[in-house]
């Protein structure tokens, strides 16, 4: 029986043998990693065609992760989006609280097949780190997670979760002390320990085969959403909307819709304080093609190829690169990418919380803010699916500071009432 | 104007004719300043280095350990530009007559423009480039321009490289091959990896006329002598950078690298 939840790309949508999506992708890696990366490619290719692998992964995705994930219509939220219908693909309801587990379980099975005993990973918001630490606990693998020092502070809850799960968390103090630097440090570890260590890369960037493989593990998001929408709304959406940092949840949602030419694929990048301020991580909006972390893609860089420091309130989107398939979708025109500011994302976070009782991750809130814009553009007949890629528990400290929700803030209660009134007022 | 690929070949051949390994030093441009970096190169050559690799600092030095990361960071915060790297190559070569290579990551060159970079490097008197994150299968464009401008393309091989891969790399490379003595990033190590000699032998077996030089973790005369026993050249980087970082002032740093180069130069002539 074919797999229900592990649905790799059909023939015709694969990258070239060298790992290129058009002009983007490839394998820009040190010689020391060539053998290991090739091994991942070979092992993944075998696994992809092995019914035993599909069965094992399906089993985990159903009984451990909780797939399929729900599709929730959010009418009260949608009132603020010009009346378009909005459905959320609830990846936040997966075990560990985000889409990341889809990829992690697949790669953890591969790790076991390769006979490796140790896993390393990078993490920004901590969601990939938590998912990886979870899988390592489940499979009995040693686990080391690299996380930028700034991110260990703003996502302290996830650091505690990873340690609770038995992982070693290393705070990276180099460079901008965020996701990019965590990846640098993970690569350094991998070069030195590659004989027994798998680098469980968390997004659709990096050297081939990671962009295609990680996408395949997340492809289930769009496949399910497409089927669920046809059942529930009776038609395909006008737009599929997702946030993009490295791009894994977005490609997971988009991919099954690529052949549906009338479905717009809209990625929401972090504009931080505004693209014009220079303090942002809107790679596709403001970057130029270059090489970062093993592949050619859009990159935030200066005229001499130095990577510039990104900024976003969201640790998971605070990255100066992007998966090569997104660069390809952008240049081919199939994908649309827009930039969402910190403030717009935070307002959307609160709006969804108060209108629907769902607290999204700050990452996913960028997609929600994008959906509010797109909904207004589409009008009342619009139908939008948004990937709610993660839940917001981890972000409560950031959100509490942003909105002044702590008891020490005397005006909290009064503010809250006013704000709700404003939100309701907006809808009219 | 053509680059100095031939000077590099002649220099390595001359060392071989003397029955010794060549000493190849690495120092980042712009560290501690552009002028200070040029003085440091002159000092290591004065101390006995045969060839110098000038690092073009990168914001994301994925293959470098903490010592070179620190130096790169100092150089970048000091505002080092590719024009400064070219000036470093030009002045170091003009003052010493030795072959000077550039070592960097691929993105700065990709962004700057391969033709522009190779033309300027050749014009400055450079001898070639080492690009550790540009694997051979992605290197065709680079090699076309490097060859046109008389620049060597030095590839890195690793203990994990399979024999058929070594053959591809040595067929495409020129100048010499950089054999990484161990699996890891740059930095000083207490002992020379046991994997190094085997890698040199496997690399030589694929092409006899391309010198094989060993780097990563070599930091003192004893290690240099050991490596010189089986390799055509000994590459030392982090130990020089560390000597400068540890020195109380720039003048003491220059003396320290000159003295270290002197020790290492004796080491490559001793052969353990």
Overall geometry of chain B: globular
CATH fold label of the largest domain in chain A: Rossmann fold
Mean pLDDT of chain B: 96
- Number of separate strands of chain B: 9
Give the count of helical stretches of chain A.
Answer: 17
Task: Report the β-strand fraction of chain A as a percent range.
Answer: 15-25%
- Indicate the structural class of chain A: alpha/beta
Structure explained in plain terms:
- The complex is a heterodimer of chains A (428) and B (272).
- Residues 424-428 of chain A have low confidence and may be disordered.
- Chain A has 17 helices and 14 strands.
- Chain A is of the alpha/beta class and 428 residues long.
- In chain A, 61% of the residues are buried.
- Chain A has a 6-stranded mixed sheet, sandwiched between helices. In chain A, strands 7-6-5-8 form a 4-stranded parallel sheet, sandwiched between helices. A two-stranded antiparallel sheet of chain A has the order 1-2.
- Chain B has one domain: Aldolase class I (TIM Barrel, Alpha-Beta Barrel).
- Helix content of chain B is 51%, strand content 13%.
- Chain B contains 12 helices and 9 strands.
- Chain B has a 9-stranded parallel sheet with strand order 5-4-3-2-1-9-8-7-6.
- In chain B, helix 2 runs parallel beside helix 4, helix 6 (114-123) runs parallel beside helix 7 (140-148) and helix 10 runs parallel beside helix 12 (250-270).
- The longest helix of chain B has 21 residues, at 250-270.
- Chain B starts with a helix and ends with a helix.
- Chain A binds chain B through residues 18, 26-32, 34-36, 174-175, 180, 184, 187-188, 191-195, 288, 290-294, 299, 301, 303-308, and chain B through 58-63, 65, 69, 73, 76, 81-82, 105-112, 132-135, 137-138, 155-162, 165, 169, 180, 183-185.
- Chain B: Its EC number is 4.2.1.20.
- Chain B: The active site is at residues 53, 64.
- Chain B: InterPro entries: Aldolase_TIM, RibuloseP-bd_barrel, Trp_synthase_alpha_AS, Trp_synthase_suA.
């Amino acid at each position: 029986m074919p797999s229900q939840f592990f649905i790799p790309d059909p023939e015709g949508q694969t990258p070239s043998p060298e790992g290129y999506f058009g002009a983007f992708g490839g394998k820009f890696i040190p010689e020391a990693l060539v053998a290991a990366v090739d091994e991942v490619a070979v092992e993944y290719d075998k696994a992809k065609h092995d019914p035993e692998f599909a069965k094992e992964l399906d089993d985990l995705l159903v009984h451990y992760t909780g797939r399929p994930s729900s599709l929730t219509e959010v009418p009260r939220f949608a009132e603020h989006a010009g009346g378009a219908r909005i459905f959320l693909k609830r990846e936040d309801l997966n075990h560990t609280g985000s889409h990341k587990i889809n990829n992690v379980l697949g790669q953890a099975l591969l790790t076991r097949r390769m006979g490796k005993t140790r896993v390393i990973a990078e993490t920004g918001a901590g969601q990939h780190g938590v998912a990886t630490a979870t899988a390592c606990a489940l499979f009995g693998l040693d686990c080391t997670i690299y996380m930028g020092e700034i991110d260990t502070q703003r996502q302290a809850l996830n650091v505690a979760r990873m340690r609770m799960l038995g992982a070693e968390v290393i705070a990276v103090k180099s460079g901008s002390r965020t996701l990019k630097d965590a990846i640098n440090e993970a690569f350094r570890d991998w070069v030195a320990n590659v004989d027994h260590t798998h680098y469980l890369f968390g997004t659709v960037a990096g050297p081939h085969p990671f962009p295609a493989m990680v996408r395949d593990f997340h492809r289930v998001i769009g496949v399910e959403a497409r089927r669920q929408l046809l059942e529930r709304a009776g038609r395909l959406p006008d737009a599929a909307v997702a946030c993009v940092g490295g791009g894994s949840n977005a490609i997971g949602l988009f991919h099954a819709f690529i052949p549906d030419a009338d479905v717009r694929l809209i990625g929401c990048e972090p504009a931080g304080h505004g693209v014009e301020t220079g303090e942002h991580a809107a790679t596709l909006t403001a970057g130029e093609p270059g090489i970062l972390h093993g592949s050619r893609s859009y990159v935030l860089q200066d005229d001499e190829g130095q990577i510039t420091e990104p900024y976003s309130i969201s640790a998971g989107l605070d990255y100066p690169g992007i998966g090569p398939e997104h660069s390809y979708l952008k240049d081919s025109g199939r994908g649309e990418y827009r930039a969402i500011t910190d403030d717009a994302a935070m307002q959307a976070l609160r709006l969804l919380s108060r209108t629907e009782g769902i607290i999204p991750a700050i990452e996913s809130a960028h997609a929600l803010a994008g959906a509010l814009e797109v909904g207004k553009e589409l009008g009342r007949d619009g139908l939008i699916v948004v990937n709610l890629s993660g839940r917001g528990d981890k972000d409560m400290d950031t959100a509490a500071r942003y909105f002044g929700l702590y008891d020490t803030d005397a005006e909290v209660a009064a503010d809250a009432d006013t704000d709700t009134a404003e939100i309701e007022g907006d809808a009219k | 104007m053509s680059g100095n690929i031939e000077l590099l070949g002649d220099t390595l051949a001359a060392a071989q004719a003397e029955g010794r390994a060549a000493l190849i030093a690495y120092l980042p441009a712009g560290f501690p300043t552009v002028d200070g970096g040029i003085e440091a190169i002159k000092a290591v050559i004065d101390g006995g280095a045969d060839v110098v690799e000038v690092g073009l600092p990168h914001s994301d030095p994925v293959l470098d350990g903490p010592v070179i990361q620190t130096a790169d960071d100092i150089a970048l915060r000091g505002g080092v530009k590719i024009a400064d790297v070219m000036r470093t190559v030009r002045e170091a070569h003009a003052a010493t007559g030795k072959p000077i290579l550039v070592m960097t990551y691929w993105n700065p060159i990709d962004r700057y423009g391969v033709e522009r970079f190779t033309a300027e490097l050749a014009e400055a008197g450079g001898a070639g480039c080492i690009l550790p994150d540009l694997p051979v299968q992605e290197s065709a464009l680079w090699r076309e321009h490097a060859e046109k401008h008389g620049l060597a393309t030095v590839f890195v091989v690793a203990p994990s490289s399979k024999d058929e891969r070594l053959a591809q790399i040595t067929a495409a490379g020129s100048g010499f091959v950089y054999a990484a003595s161990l699996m890891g990033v740059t930095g000083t190590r207490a002992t020379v990896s046991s994997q190094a000699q085997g890698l040199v032998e496997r690399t030589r077996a694929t092409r006899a006329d391309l010198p094989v030089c060993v780097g990563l973790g070599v930091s003192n005369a004893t290690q240099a002598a050991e490596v010189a026993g089986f390799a055509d050249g000994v590459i030392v980087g982090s130990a020089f950078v560390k000597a400068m970082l540890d020195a109380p002032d720039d003048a003491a740093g220059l003396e320290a690298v000159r003295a270290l180069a002197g020790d290492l130069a004796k080491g490559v002539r001793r052969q353990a």
